[in-house]
Amino acid sequence: MTYDVLVIGSGIAGLMAAIEAKSEHNSVAILTKGNIFKSNSAIASGGINAVLDEKNDVEIQKHIDDTMNSAKELGDKKAVAYLCKRAPHIIKKLVEYGVAFDRDENGAILQRSFGGGSSKRTCFVGDSTGASITQALIKKARLIGVEFLVNHYVMDITKIENYVSGVICLKRQDSSVLVYPTKAVVFAGGGYAGIYRGFSTNAQDCTGDVLSIALRAGLYLKDMEFVQFHPTGFAKTSYLISEAARGEGGHLVNSDGERFVDELGTRDVLSRAIFEQVRQGKKVYLDMRHIPQNILESRVPTLYKNAYTQVGIDIATELLEVKPVAHYSMGGIYAPFTCSDIKGLYVCGEAAAIGVHGANRLGGNSLLEGAVFGELAGQKVKAYVSNKDFLPIDYSVVIKNMQLVDRIFEGECTKNFNAMRISVGKIMFTKAGIFRNEASLQEAFDYMKYLRQESNTLHCIDKGKNNNVELISILELRNALELCEAIILSAMHRKESRGAHHREDFPLTCKEGNRHVLIKELQKGFFKVAYEENLFTRWFQKILT
Description:
The protein is α+β, with helices and mostly antiparallel strands. It has helices at residues 12-21, 40-43, 57-70, 77-96, 129-144, 209-216, 244-247, 267-279, 293-299, 301-311, 365-385, 395-410, 417-432, 438-454, 469-493, and strands spanning 3-8, 28-31, 48-49, 111-112, 122-123, 147-149, 152-160, 163-171, 176-187, 221-222, 227-234, 251-254, 284-287, 320-329, 332-334, 345-347, 352-353, 515-523, 526-533, 541-544.
């Protein structure tokens, strides 16, 4: 089966890209490795930022300024301006597609405060905004003829002379390796915070697969050291407590009953403040007892319900213990305004490093980025395929992936890959998490390099080909370990503290640090590190083994 456009990922970015790319003259399909309703977009609960009046230049400029301030001098001014100026149009488009934003008695869209924002600009649907948006977009995509290829795990792309020509997938139903010829591809497969397993709001399969594919395809990854930790997850389960809870007036208190931080500060500041309390032996709680119960039930209904069902807490009358958890990755595939260095390959959403988040994402901007740049990627890919032909498939890459799957099935497993996945999450959190230093990063890098070698010896215990969960888990782990090395190398080369990246041995932000770290894998285990200045482009390269 051939498609003019293949979109990888069914979050808000992928859905917007597919909708924009579709016309009566082309075929578009979305590939997902699981359920189409399962994505980080669907669990993004707090809201989406936008100034609703497109003529209100003052408020739009404030949105730009807030975003740039949060980015800590690493935001791309043109990309941020495009993001914020496009926001009013995106909200109108989402309403047209059926998103029922909460409204006041006069029918106006309600907006709440979010951390780092100087104005109330976050539009919401209770505390299930992401799910409401993705459901509306799925309905729209189906209506206009976008196909959904579910349970397809993407393994690689094929290229001909730096032009994309196909996508290689593992069909989960029978573990067969397939190739789909295509004219163009959109990477919208999400981020990599799920690597911090046990300390992340992301599902355990959010391991940045498309970023690993990009490395193998010869692309640069940018700003991988910037992993955003959300200040508030359930202490016991890591379940995300939306920023909506603090936007509606929730307090953060320690076990001494003290409020120790501005609850509407940026996420990097709050995460470090909470974790420092924990390091001092104190517990931290979300306190919403002063908020009327009817407000809790209407504005944060999901939190109200899950606090009781998951940990037995009634937030109307009790304190809820919280901890910081890995939530979002600012780093991604180097793709200015969605364009990669491979012709016909576009990138959007959390998988992309377009430059709107810099060193620290502003709360409420992730869904907006997915929608705005998903739309842009779709428009660009639609124009690209209009006069292009299908190109030949490089079957040597297909055979290589088939042989990899065969090897994983054929051997006998002597190691516990689930234990390896858990240890990856723990080491990444403790050694390359909220606080880092040279020694901890070196320990983490050495351990990941060791595990990456050991991952070659992993095999399926269950040799059945139908819906083999072990096979996918092993492939995800291999990808995760590849990205771990890139994350740690980037963190080692940023010898300063900036935004979500905090070095205990380099606690200050340096003027000369106003540059981006780029990572490229020349071959397995051999990386090239380059620096790109933020104001103008200069290149410095170093080969690492």
